[in-house]
Write a structure and sequence with these properties.
Elements (H helix, E strand, L loop, with lengths): L5 E3 L6 H8 L3 H10 L12 E3 H15 L4 H5 L9 H8 L4 H10 L9 E7 L2 E7 L8 H17 L10 E3 L9 H7 L3 E2 L5 E6 L17 H7 L8 H15 L4 H7 L4 H10 L4 H19 L4 H7 L5 H12 L3 H13 L8
Parallel strand pairs: 5-6
Antiparallel strand pairs: 1-2, 3-4, 4-7, 5-7
Helix pairs in contact: 1-2, 2-3, 5-6, 10-13, 13-15, 13-16, 14-15
Amino acid sequence: MAEIPVISNRILHGMPAFVRREIGQKAPLQANRAIGFDLELTEGENCFIPHAAVIRFVEAAARAVGDTNFGVLMAPMMNVANYGSYGRYVIGAGTLGQAIGRAISSLCFHSTDDRMSVSVVGDEVRYSYVFALAGCAGYANVACAAAGVLLSLFRAYLPLDWRPLRIELNTNRPRQTGLLEDVFQCPVHFNAPAVTVVMDRHHLSAAPRHAAWPIVTIEDVARDRRGGAPRDLLDVIMEQIRAQVLTGSVSIESAAQLTDTSVRTLQRELNRAGTDFRSLATAVRVQRATELLRHTNGSITRVAAELGYSSPANFARAFRKATGNGPKEFRSAITGLTACGPVQFSH
């Protein structure tokens, strides 16, 4: 199976709420159905989803909205500041030029197979981004949203009345370009090699407009992203299962859909790697179960439901098989250790 490019779920931050607010409750449900899980339930978590899922979600949302310019409508709400530790690290730089450098150097913690670059030609700076699945069906809306993300970085440093010299999109020229130029407030060019924002060179030294953000280092981003976006098939599938577990419904059909393959092919690849989907799902569920039992007071019934088990008994059986203890015994043991006070270590 070919490598599956993935990207942080934070790229769609706020989009389900935006679609619901603009269109109604059913629109996000249709978009979630296109990717196999409720995206909104993972917004507070750090997950990676396939690039194909991003295109499918946006395409389904556009159909629900009934507007082929959905990506243009999304652009103003896109903001790199919402991208977790990666976004905070980027906009925490002392100048716009340094922020662009941070975005490029730490991109591996945000996605795989995307490309980002900056170049200076005369008095112009060109800040460019290429989505891993650029050119695929439904990509045009993603390209417009990506331009919105790039612009959000500029606007964190430049005056409110700043306008880019132009924006270039790696999409075909639409019949009408007026809406894009109205939203981006500058000329828009098409059939470019990348999504690019062009500005005057002297802006690179601009200081941030906002008050100082908490300091975030590249090491903080690395810890939050566990070394970077996953590339190995097992890691990618584990991420999809983790996202499904967070929404309470796990299925190999949804995982296959998200990775743009068939159930049979996915099963074959997992078997070749020495495992199977059920074993991976159990491992992720047990890991999440230990977190919930350790750090929350939710009932065993609620924990079982959160993890997508059909009954508390099925959850308890699976947990005991994996850990050697039932969930009640596990929680009692943890409570007992906590009651004894902090554990002392000797050197």
